[in-house]
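Page 47, continued from p. 46.
Same chain as before, 463 aa.
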Amino acid sequence: MQQQTTFSIPSMGKFLNISAQTLRKKLQTQGYLKPSNKVGNQYLLTFDDAESFIAKNYGIYYNEFVNKYSLGKRNEDLMFTIPKGKGVISSDRQRSGKVLYYIRNLPLYTDDQGNTIKFRSKGYTTKEEAIAERERLLSDRENGLYKYHYLEVQQKEKKSTSIKKAPTYYEFCVKYFEAAEYEEATRELYLDITENRFKPFFKDIPVTQLTKALLQEFVDQYNTNIRKMFIVLSLTLKKLYSLDLIKENFYTALIKPKSIAPKHPKEALSVDETKQFLQYFKGHPLEHCIRLLFQCGLRIGELLALQWHEVELISASRARIHVNASWGKTVTGMGRKAPKTASSKRIIPINDAYTVQTLISAKKRSKSCLWVAENQSGTRPIDKHNFSKRYFTKVGNLLGFKKHLSSHVARHTFISHMVQNNVPYTEIAKLAGHDSTAMIINVYAHAIQEEEQVFDYVSNMYA
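Result:
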């Protein structure tokens, strides 16, 4: 690698983040555009001229320039002093018991009086954060970003930023959820709550004017459908606090209304009820779907996304279900998407001859040869809400069940019966696609050695 000897005006403008036109005018005024530097229709600056011009007009870029284009060889008369030292990382335990980490005594730059100016940080929640910030500061220092007048420039920028109109709380919420990484259905839900509940109350209230009293007044309007609304409050107020746009996290002080009990609490079916329910669907075109929900503990979205190439028919009495996706809202509409969690991707063996035969028959009847739970035309999966209402709620009423049935009751029943029959919680978690046993029950359990013990139980549970 050799020192670069000439520079075009466009390339220098790009390096200095200014337009070629502005740069050309400034170079001409200061006498850098010499006839001897003109090659064809363009001017080429020598390294010495470029170095002199940057040192004189754009000092904060000087060190970066020489590091990049001259192998670090600086003109001592032109460069500014870079102090040495990395400072230290110190810790301080707060009254609350929380430990914060600080960067101390890190020399940033030398001012025009020869004084070394040191950086003093805010508190970081982890030592790793403090170390990462120190490394960034040291890198900026070496590139000349802390020449004595740089902080003055920063102060001017900060002042101009501070006088900008603060967004309203409603505007902030919209921007936050539009940018956040959520599943499309979740994003839509939070934006709907923002539009229908937050906009009427907060559309004209800047975030800087939020108070506990104001937020409590907003909350007190509602006593139904509040759980997701409080999630929106929690996420956005926490973010505002982290950005120093509010003086405290007001969410922690909010008095929440009493939770409204669910209209239909989840109840698992008994073994006898489950047998009765499955018997009702004997010979039905969707019998295979009903049995997959009860015998595999599939989520309804997992069933709807299931395709025939993911149903491995091993023999007349054995099969494997490969759960790879879920059905739900995407950016382009309803479709297959990544499952709920990484652990949701799983393989569920079926060792039940009758269930396997229902799958074989259904595959032969399939119009699409694609969707396991296809609609009547075979073009896509069946409608989730229609399926749950028609084949669970309605059938439950016909059978005289006192419990409210939905498609999720099948999964709830599957897990409940496994727990009741002392199947290790670790194995239940694997079969159900949970991240941990805590989602099943909060006790210690030993994993069994033979998976077949579990699968044999599952296959005979409703025999």
